[in-house]
Amino acid sequence: MAKSQQLSISSVSVDAKFMFRTAGLLGPDYAGKKPRYEGQMLTVIGFQPRLVNNVIVRDPEGRLSLMPSWMVELALKLQG
Q1: Mean pLDDT of 28-52
Q2: Which CATH class is domain 8-79?
Q3: If we measure between CA atoms, which residue out of 49, 51, 53 comes closest to residue 72?
Q4: Whole-angstrom distance, CA of residue 51 vs CA of residue 17
């Protein structure tokens, strides 16, 4: 029987959850440019290592988005 492995890139792991807040991640200059998942809890569900936006996240409605790993790492640090 194979052991299950937790997939991760840097400090981001599958099943990690974080609240997305544009101002906290990108600063006040982006306050008017909020994505559809602003203020929602996002869940990391996978990775696309060959892409710049290499972390796949799912919002509460089940929609998928790609984000850069640095942004997900910062969001996780800010909430922790």
Answers
A1: 86
A2: mainly beta
A3: 53
A4: 21
Q: Give the pairing type, strands 12-13 and 17-19.
A: unpaired
Every domain of the chain and the residues it spans: 8-79
Are residues 19 and 28 in contact, defined by beta-carbon separation less than 8 angstroms? no
| Residues 42-69: b if buried by 16+ CB within 10 A, e if exposed | bebeebeeeeeebbbbbbeeeeeeebeb
Query: Residue 29 carries which side chain, given as an amino acid letter?
Result: D
- Name residue 16's amino acid: A
3-state secondary structure of 67: strand
Q: Is-contact 19 41, C-beta < 8 A?
A: yes
Give pTM, 2 decimals.
Answer: 0.80
Structure tokens at 1: 């029987």
d(CA 71, CA 25): 7
Q: What is the pLDDT of residue 1?
A: 36
